[in-house]
From TrEMBL:
Taxonomy, superkingdom: Bacteria
Annotated signal sequence range: 1-23
The name this protein goes by in its record: Alpha/beta hydrolase-fold protein
Source organism of the structure: Arcicella lustrica
A single GO molecular function term of this UniProt record: hydrolase activity
Record's keyword annotation contains Hydrolase: yes
Classification of source organism: Bacteria, Pseudomonadati, Bacteroidota, Cytophagia, Cytophagales
This protein's UniProt keywords: Hydrolase, Signal
InterPro entries: AB_hydrolase_fold, Esterase-like, Ig-like_fold, Mycobacterial_A85_antigen
Length: 371
């Protein structure tokens, strides 16, 4: 009898906990609207004011449909089939603010959502969805003077071909004669040179900061970092030398020759997100005579002992999302400051290894460059 009574008490306690947990789950508000990144005239995917995402796929002959969200397509939302042959489902909880990659798994096959625009990530063109952020104004398209983003093809003797880069020039560049500092800004694994302008809105971030008088205008250059030559999880096999040759010996001389740059180490910066941060750290340490401003965005840290000549480094900026490991970034900057480096840390609130973290990081970094 004692065992039975104890079991009943435990059962009641578990039920109460379950009921309390269920009560704490917020009801989904039915104010869904098409995602800002949908194809023209497409209603789905949709997002609501809480950050939930809802998907609808037309696949009448399918046996199963699932949405895989995030870099690499991990996790997912199972869709349910309706009588009209469509499949619909809503994420179990709200998503982080900002941009997310995703794809559709139909009977095990991987496809893009025909309702959404595509972005290069996870070493393929993925569907994209945007969860409107409370601070999205800093990368919004506004009625301000805009810079230009142009594609250039630069010769790469080391590859026996020409390679592509995208160059952002500030508003007024075409009509002026001023020379500008340059930030070489790198993407992460699975992405390419289109990422920072498309997913990251780097050009709009710059335009808005310049319009507000918060930064000294500078040029941004994005090129492919050869990061996808290794598989995810095998980053230790990545060799920096081929890309270092492209960047330092081929791209930088091309940019300095074809754009009005201040072709000096003191006016040249390098930054990168994730694996692009790893590239940034290695290349800046290998080439202290080329870059003076360093920034790693969810891409590791510097230690004071990494840097041989402190006088050549004007700024070290380290950032990550609060859902990553911010303690490492904060402690690294504290150590750099103690060693008399001009070092700054930034932690993006309530975001992880994702573009909202890196958009915010660029927004914080830009005013610190070339001061």
């Amino acid at each position: 009898m004692k065992i039975k009574a104890k079991s009943i008490i435990v059962g009641i306690f578990v039920a109460m906990l379950a009921q309390q947990s269920f009560a704490q789950q917020p009801a989904v508000i039915e104010d869904f609207k098409p995602s800002p990144l949908n194809q023209p005239q497409q209603e789905y995917p949709m997002v609501n004011s809480q950050g939930y995402a809802r998907f609808k796929i037309i696949a009448p002959a399918a046996d199963s449909v699932r949405v895989s969200l995030g870099l690499g397509g991990k996790g997912g939302t199972k869709l349910e089939k309706a009588s009209d042959g469509s499949w619909m489902g809503t994420t179990e909880g709200p998503m982080d603010e900002g941009f997310h990659y995703y794809n559709i798994k139909i009977d095990g096959g991987k496809f893009n959502d025909p309702g959404a625009l595509n972005y290069y990530g996870s070493v393929r063109w993925e569907s994209g969805i945007e969860i409107p952020a409370h601070d999205q104004d800093f990368y919004a398209l506004k009625n301000v003077a805009h810079g230009h983003v142009q594609q250039v093809l630069f010769p790469s003797p080391s590859n026996n071909t020409s390679l592509r880069a995208f160059v952002y020039t500030p508003p007024g560049y075409e009509k002026g004669k001023d020379k500008y500092p340059v930030l070489y800004l790198q993407h992460g694994w699975g992405e390419d040179e289109t990422a920072w302008m498309n997913q990251g809105h780097a050009n709009l971030i710059m335009d808005n900061l310049i319009a507000e008088g918060k930064i000294k205008p500078f040029i941004i250059v994005n090129t492919y970092g050869m990061t996808n030559e290794v598989k995810f999880g095998r980053m230790k096999d990545f060799k920096i030398e081929p890309f270092q040759t492209v960047l330092v010996n081929e791209l930088i001389p091309y940019v300095d020759a074809h754009f009005r740059t201040i072709a000096k180490q003191t006016h040249r910066a390098m930054a990168g997100l994730s694996m692009g941060g790893m590239e940034t750290k290695t290349i800046t340490l290998n080439n202290p005579e080329v870059f003076s401003h360093y920034a790693l965005l969810s891409g590791g840290t510097y230690a004071p002992t990494d840097i041989k000549d402190k006088s050549k480094v004007k700024l070290i900026f380290l950032s990550c999302g609060s859902k990553e490991r911010p303690e490492g970034v904060i402690k690294a900057v504290e150590a750099l400051k103690e060693a008399s480096f001009n070092a700054v840390s930034y932690v993006s609130d309530k975001t992880g290894h994702e573009f909202q973290t890196w958009r915010r990081s660029l927004h914080e970094l830009a005013p610190l460059l070339f001061k």
